[in-house]
Amino acid sequence: QVQLVESGGGLVQAGGSLRLSCAASGRTFSSYAMGWFRQAPGKEREFVAAISWRGSSTGYADSVKGRFTISRENAKNTVYLQMNSLKPEDTAVYYCAARNNRWPGHEPSEYDYWGQGTQVTVSS
Question: Is the pLDDT of residue 22 over 90?
């Protein structure tokens, strides 16, 4: 069992930055691939970024490529999402997810554990 707690969301102006953190419980964190997803009102949950168990492989949605960076510190059981050059269309609830597999996926159904989400609001 893995429990995930996100933090770092908030209100920011367009062009600004935020760093989301996701703290995981459990001794098996380092063997899980991790992902970030987001869901805006009235829309389906969508993939944002993912990282493999040791961080050697990452993937991003086209909409955030070049602006967002995913990273992890296995010694701290934490995964991060650095978000730069934020746009109003990035406004959503951001979720951290853990996959019981060393390699990441891009679909919500591929992930086994989810955090409660953190709100990110970007004003124009």
Answer: yes
